[in-house]
Amino acid sequence: MKVEILSHTPNGDKLIAAAAKLCYSSAEIATLWDGLTQDKAESFLDMLSSIGHESPFEHVSVTFGIEGVSRAVLAQITRHRIASFSVQSQRYVNKEHFTYIIPPAILNNPEALAEFTAAMEEDRAHYIRIARILTAEHKERLIADGADEKTAEKTAQKAAFENARSVLPNACDTKIIMTMNVRSLYNFFALRCCNRAQWEIRTLAVEMLRLCRNIYPKLFEKAGPPCITQPCPEGKMSCGKIKEVRESFSSF
After folding, report:
1. Class of domain 2-87+175-226
2. Are 76 and 87 in contact (CB under 8 A)?
3. Is pTM, for the whole model, over 0.90?
4. Out of 183, 192, 196, 210, which one is annotated catalytic?
């Protein structure tokens, strides 16, 4: 898994504080902006968090580049709908050489790993054969319709990938560029950094939070699973490791 921040809103702390202050001030925007020192902005962020006034946090966003995650993660992360996603297309990209993400429970069990690896390679073989069969069929038809061989080959391959992709596994790798505003990230981290989240998206979320704390220490100092600042909300479903969780998120 590779995660990096590609872009983020500059002066995030100050922008949020200025947006919030504007709601209650008759001053000019420039006056509000110029009067905000970093200390004043951070103090205002604490106040906003304490009263639950979260809409100003939507003015700041972070764009992540994500690689080496599975299509299973893609299915989960796109449930967070207040975000923008650009995803590598299996319709247009040849996935003959796809890599696959192996769950730790399988990786640590030799018998399960052998079955898993065999299944992945079988899927790959089926994908290759289906793509070749369909490419040949489409190419023949396109040439018969008057296309030159080079154009026919290229067009036929794309049409073949579109249908051959149906045999690719959930473990197949993908690449994502994703943008979320800070308010959405708070929600994402609260849900996906929890020990009860699926292992892969939790690994992704924790790394994203670590990166966010590097660029916006104040904005994200209390972000993460709810149990780092309050009792666990999972009730009987709690992992029971609140002390360990708090220690791990305080050590970023």
Report:
1. alpha beta
2. no
3. yes
4. 192
